[in-house]
């Protein structure tokens, strides 16, 4: 089977034709999440407590900005709950893509201990082909497969290799978590060494790395450069993000940038005074327009690029 491109996206509500996605896409978000390792409940989006606020935000963004799709990168060991994803997607009338994989090492699940690449690949392929648990919901992307530091740890390398093999076997694309933006080139080298084409890889959190040369190198390979923590001012200013994005575009790589906000704790929700999922549309894109971006460029960054990434289409197929 030729896995070079898929013209339908796999969402929690079923298959969706790429042509049906007429509005913007959030390329890296969390709708349900549990990364609470401190016991303070901050790094949590609890379906019982926060689903209504999340649904209201997404619905409002659909009405105001035409939000059409959210790529939800909560995977194994991160509190994934695809039943809740499906109900939020239905109630907000916004399509949601669910993910499979493993996050970076502090969040690895016990099944990884001592497992080899083949065993972990089989786990991922089974979920992609048969659905997550008994839900029948099938993941539409691999992610966010993580590493931290400049080089993945041994366990992280095993997970990344398994993800690459599962992506090759199933035709899905793969999004990474590069902690604080570091290690993206090492991730890309490892993934492509397993035979996964670079255009089916998105390297995460690159807006946290103030290194335009690395961004150009990732983009020149054909991989996507994710500026996906927009609005997280405690990590990086949006002024710096904008400068880095403009530099990447001026280097000729506008077709390789992905944008999102990576809402990963309930304090980021608007009803708790946070920037919300809409910060990209309400604040960052207006600043990008002020820097000279026109409607076509905004559409490229927020719709066509993420659709090309998710569908696995190469430039020749667009």
UniProtKB/TrEMBL annotation:
Keyword Hydrolase: yes
The family this protein is said to belong to: Belongs to the metallo-dependent hydrolases superfamily. Phosphotriesterase family.
InterPro entries registered for this protein in UniProt: Metal_Hydrolase, Phosphotriesterase
Organism this protein belongs to: Streptomyces halstedii
Name of this protein: Phosphotriesterase
UniProt keywords, alphabetically: Hydrolase, Metal-binding
Keyword Metal-binding tagged: yes
